[in-house]
Amino acid sequence: MIEVTNLTKQYGDHMAVDHLSFRVEKGQIYGFLGPNGAGKSTTMNIITGYIAPSEGTVTIDGKDIQKEPEEAKKQIGYLPEIPPLYVEMTVEEYLEFAAQLKKIPKAERQAQMRKVMEMTGVEDVKKRLIRNLSKGYRQRVGLAQAMLGDPEVIILDEPSVGLDPKQIIEIRDLIRRLGENHTIILSSHILSEVSAICDHIMIISHGRLVASDSPEGLKKLMNHSQELQLTVKGGEAQLCDVLNKVTDVSSVEAMEAPGEGFARARAVSEEHADIRETVFYALAEAKLPIMEMVVHEKSLEDIFLELTEGVQPGEKERKKLFGPRKRKKSSEGGEAEPADGSTEEADEKQGGI
Question: Whose CA is closest to 86, among 147, 45, 149, 145?
Answer without folding.
Answer: 145
